[in-house]
Write a structure and sequence with these properties.
Layout: E1 2-3, E2 6-10, H1 21-34, E3 38-42, E4 48-52, H2 56-78, H3 88-93
Parallel strand pairs: 2-3
Antiparallel strand pairs: 1-2, 3-4
Helix pairs in contact: 1-2
């Protein structure tokens, strides 16, 4: 969600002192998609963190997001799934599970 020139990710879980690594990658992808330079993670327990795209932790998350996107592109072109462990629950939640020949939900 974009608000006040930043991207916000609202999480249904609580956070400890540090944000969850996967949440940082999601925020990085949202920042890249919207073109904004600031992102905010807001957790259920009222904790929130603000990041700029130039922060070291966000630079790392942006690189991870770019690596994931590169793997996805390669997988789509080659029709070979990326390394990982598909599960029924993951495949059930995936928006392309009906088209995916690798779906474990079939």
């Amino acid at each position: 969600m974009c608000e006040k020139n930043s991207t916000a990710e609202y999480k249904s879980s609580a956070a400890d002192d540090k944000p969850h690594p996967g949440d940082l990658v999601q925020l990085a992808a949202a920042m890249m998609a919207t073109g904004v330079q600031t992102g905010v993670l807001k957790y259920k327990n009222e904790r929130f963190n603000t990041f700029k795209s130039t922060d070291p932790v966000m630079k790392q998350a942006i690189q991870r997001a770019m690596n994931i996107m590169a793997q996805m592109r390669k997988s789509l072109v080659s029709n070979v799934p990326p390394a990982g462990t598909p599960t029924v629950n993951k495949c059930k939640a995936c928006p392309i599970n009906k088209q995916c020949s690798f779906s474990s939900g079939k």
